[in-house]
């Protein structure tokens, strides 16, 4: 249950399968900001990936809605082989037109609230090494980077959840 996340202009809630095309579009806009040469064409079917994330019984996709439009989203679940008290933040995006307006901070707080309510103690995420903006955001929220291997394209970060 997400508490205290509804304002007259902003609602944070579970994303709906019918919203998948808007989610894919927001994801592409956000990712494009840290790929100076354009989004890599790696063959990922992002529509199918987001449909799968929305349908997973073991995960959640939260979204921030302002003026009837999704402006932020977060997808998380327990990663395979991890302890039950661990959660992984697989996707976290804010529409670039809404940066620096508190959307990401509110969405992060909603995620932490969910994780604590579910008894999670540790959260993990991978962030692209070139995405300095995101790394700075996560550090300000309390995430700590783990040592990276040379040549890694992603940095793993860890967040310790306080008991509720």
TrEMBL record:
Q: Entry's InterPro entries?
A: Acyl_CoA_acyltransferase (IPR016181), Bact_Acetyltransf (IPR050832), GNAT_dom (IPR000182)
Instruction: For this UniProt record, give its keywords in alphabetical order, as a comma-separated list.
Output: Acyltransferase, Transferase
- Record keywords: Transferase included? yes
GO MF annotation terms: acyltransferase activity, transferring groups other than amino-acyl groups
| N-acetyltransferase domain ranges (all copies) | 10-162
PANTHER family documented for this protein: AMINOALKYLPHOSPHONATE N-ACETYLTRANSFERASE-RELATED-RELATED
Protein name (record): Acetyltransferase
The major lineage groups are: Bacteria, Bacillati, Actinomycetota, Actinomycetes, Kitasatosporales
